[in-house]
Amino acid sequence: MTFQFLSPKPSSYTNKVDADGDIDMLLKTERENFETKVVTPGETITHATQYMGGHGTYISPETNQRLSSVAGVVDRVNKLISIRPLHTRYTGEIGDLVIGRITEVSQKRWKVDINSRQDAVLLLSSINLPGGVQRRKTEADELQMRKFFSEGDLLVAEVRETFQDGSFSLHIRSLKYGKLRNGSFVIVPPALVQRCKTHFHTLPCGVNLTLGLNGYIWVSKHTTQTVEELAIYSNENEEIDQENREAIARVCNSISALSRHFMCINDKMIMLAYEASLNFPVKDLLKLDVMEVITSEVSEKMILLKAGMRR
Amino acid sequence: MSSRLELIGPQGLRTDGRRFNELRNMNCKPSVLSQADGSAYIEQGNTKCLAAVYGPREARTKAQVLHNRANINVEISLAPFSMEERKKRSKSDKRILEIASAVKQTFEPIIMTELYARSQIDIYLQILQFDGGTVQICINAATLAIIDAGIPMKDYVCACSAGCIDDEPVLDLNHLEESNTPELTVALLPKNDKITLLQMESRLHIDKFQQVMEMAAKGCKEIHTVLDKAVRENIKDLLKKSSI
Amino acid sequence: MVKEFESSINEKDFILQGIKEGLRLDNRDIYDFRQLGITFGPDYGRSEVTLGNTRVLAKVSCEVMRPYQDRPAEGMITLSTEMSPMAFPSVEPGRPSEEEILVSRILEKAIKRSRAIDTEGLCIVANEKVWSIRVDIHFLDHDGNIIDAACIAAISALAHFRRPDITVIGEEVTIHSIEQRNPVPLSIHHMPICVTFAFFENGEYVVVDPTLQEEQIRQGDMTMTLNIHKEICALSKAGGTPLKMETIINCSQIATTKAKWITEQIQAALDAEKSKK
């Protein structure tokens, strides 16, 4: 499910097909009523009773109209109306890739902060043991949980299941998941990170990028060799030279610039921002006027790219 | 007792030049803080308030966790430089705690807390300059900040104060007026005109009560238009920035 | 920390259903107060009020003190309402709970801010000596509506209280003991009476003087403080279910009648006490 703020499409399209392949069933007039409509709490979205209400809507008990409960844009998929607010905490789904920080070590589980309504849970049974050993976790493992993850560690994981109260359970049963090292951490609003096929990118400037869907991003040194299986829980960083550090810092600041101007974050945008930032020294990238210049360049280039794609 | 003040001058103008049914000059801006989930800054006349909302997030203490809805926590602090005399105000001053409790109870039925079991919503309000109307500005600022944080609410909550000078109802009292006349603060849901908060501290005759309440309700509706406009402008701004 | 005892879901539904039909558990009308009993203690300024099963005790005492700097010719009134675990098993002694802050603020607004007592009459020597009146309110038993009971207790205690007579000759102040000269009553401008309403079903049903069980299922509440001259001294509806304006106006009319009735009861009790002495 893509999350984009789309401008109204030209009317040359006869059959509106959106990213999921759904064909729009509504009349053209009704459709125009809803596109990019901004609503605020307590406002009537529609008088028609044929629509089902999704997130951000509720039915007023007195007048039986569908009202909005958040301030945002109306998002309509056929008969389902929901309202997307612009700043929300991360609400995840099974299979999402997230980055989190350990907040608590309790019995047989860790509590992980993932910028959501509640801390997520990482069960002891959901992690890999060092050395690739496949066995049941014993009580000895329980007592040594801090050897694997202790408070303050950063990790990348996938959402395994969601509980009824809205919290998640994570797992890191794959070699590409696990503890993060050799890099720098950036926080952006979760709404800006789009779902893609892969969230692990390597930028041409020699920097690894891990985009968590919860708005946490990890920028790290590019390693050609995979981490040894025994060292997946090591807390040691490798040696990172000056050039790499600069590249990592530049990417981090470009991401901050994009997020400040509320532009969506994916590897293409970050590369454009990185190239636009090469004109300035790294430390100047935190200045507001420099950020303006970079982001306007990026938006121009994106418009050109999109125009090129349409033709 | 204070010396005889003329709160309404001969031309029907009050001490700050307003007529009896005029609101103070109001400025508001949502999304002013970068770290909070939602934030807002409001100025009503000379009273200035900054609100920050965090949440829903993991509850801090296990004791505050409610199994079926979110817990709302409100903290208000009055800056030491906010009043004429610089004085450090303690956070457990009963007046401030009462206002915080009133704000919390006002928002409890309005925020849809059943959607966020076991979480906590924190509302922090900071009064930067005080010229009367603490309760109303706290409620208005909190409303804007909660909307900015994307937390679902049934409707806006708009608050306004009204009083009675020389037997005439007047709207939106400043500090000088509220120390010398009865002041009624009303918080309203603009959609269905229902009142969520009603507070008064001085003596008012019951015959005047209805008029004053109706005047305050009208003021709330005007405030609603100002807040709504600010929210819409903010969203349109962000949409413009993010659409490429 | 002991959790407050809650009624079962069945009981709550039963009470709510009864209120919807206009019936209450103790056979009262929805706008009726419970049986109000006011007794005065052996010494001046002590009054005990029973409102149904709710019991509140108020004791007034006085002391000569220095006045506040910004009010040099006025006396001082202090109200103390500490909730002890005797009436509130879920309250931790020492830490003021949210409910306690609300109760004490409403009583302060009702008695202090509404200027029920003439504070200028408490001045002895301006800038140096004034009377400081202290009202201690103790909650003995909580069966709902402690605010109304506490207010009645405080006001009747203040009306019953007698302070020692004084003579001022130049800078010298002589305080006469009770045996020497008859003690003097306080001058009371008006008697503020609190009337508490509880709301159910989104404001459709109103009840006056809720019991503890009714308080537990209420969705909103409002306390109006009025006096017999039809002036609203304080109003507090802090959150809770939103109400229509007509409901509030309606409640204010009911509150005026109730305030009148309660004032008459207090007056009758005071007169009975005076004739006893």
TrEMBL record, chain A:
PANTHER family: EXOSOME COMPLEX COMPONENT RRP4 (PTHR21321:SF4), PNAS-3 RELATED (PTHR21321). Pfam families: ECR1_N, KH_6, S1_RRP4. It is found in: Nucleus. InterPro entries: Exosome_cplx_N_dom, Exosome_RNA_bind1/RRP40/RRP4, KH_dom_type_1, KH_dom_type_1_sf, NA-bd_OB-fold, S1_domain, S1_RRP4. GO terms for molecular function: RNA binding. It comes from Rhizophagus irregularis (strain DAOM 181602 / DAOM 197198 / MUCL 43194) (Arbuscular mycorrhizal fungus). This is S1 motif domain-containing protein. The keyword Acetylation does not apply. GO terms for cellular component: cytoplasmic exosome (RNase complex); nuclear exosome (RNase complex). SMART domains: S1.
TrEMBL record, chain B:
Residues 22-152, 155-219 form the Exoribonuclease phosphorolytic domain. Belongs to the RNase PH family. One of its GO terms (biological process) is nuclear mRNA surveillance. It holds the Pfam family RNase_PH. This is Ribosomal RNA-processing protein 41. SUPFAM superfamilies: Ribonuclease PH domain 2-like, Ribosomal protein S5 domain 2-like. PANTHER family: EXOSOME COMPLEX COMPONENT, EXOSOME COMPLEX COMPONENT RRP41. The keyword Transferase does not apply. Component of the RNA exosome complex. Specifically part of the catalytically inactive RNA exosome core complex (Exo-9) which may associate with the catalytic subunits RRP6 and DIS3 in cytoplasmic- and nuclear-specific RNA exosome complex forms. Exo-9 is formed by a hexameric base ring of RNase PH domain-containing subunits and a cap ring consisting of CSL4, RRP4 and RRP40. GO terms for molecular function: RNA binding. GO terms for cellular component: cytoplasmic exosome (RNase complex); nuclear exosome (RNase complex); nucleolus; ribosome. It is found in: Cytoplasm; Nucleus, Nucleolus. The keyword Ribosomal protein applies. InterPro entries: ExoRNase_PH_dom1, ExoRNase_PH_dom2, ExoRNase_PH_dom2_sf, PNPase/RNase_PH_dom_sf, Ribosomal_Su5_D2-typ_SF, RNase_PH. Keywords: Cytoplasm, Exosome, Ribonucleoprotein, Ribosomal protein.
UniProtKB/TrEMBL annotation, chain C:
Its main location: cytoplasm. It comes from Rhizophagus irregularis (strain DAOM 181602 / DAOM 197198 / MUCL 43194). One of its GO terms (biological process) is U1 snRNA 3'-end processing. Belongs to the RNase PH family. GO terms for molecular function: mRNA 3'-UTR AU-rich region binding. This is Exosome complex component RRP45. Residues 33-164, 190-256 form the Exoribonuclease phosphorolytic domain. It is found in: Cytoplasm; Nucleus, Nucleolus. Keywords: Cytoplasm, Exosome, Nucleus, Ribonucleoprotein, Ribosomal protein, RNA-binding, rRNA processing. GO terms for cellular component: cytoplasmic exosome (RNase complex); nuclear exosome (RNase complex); nucleolus; ribosome. Pfam families: RNase_PH, RNase_PH_C.
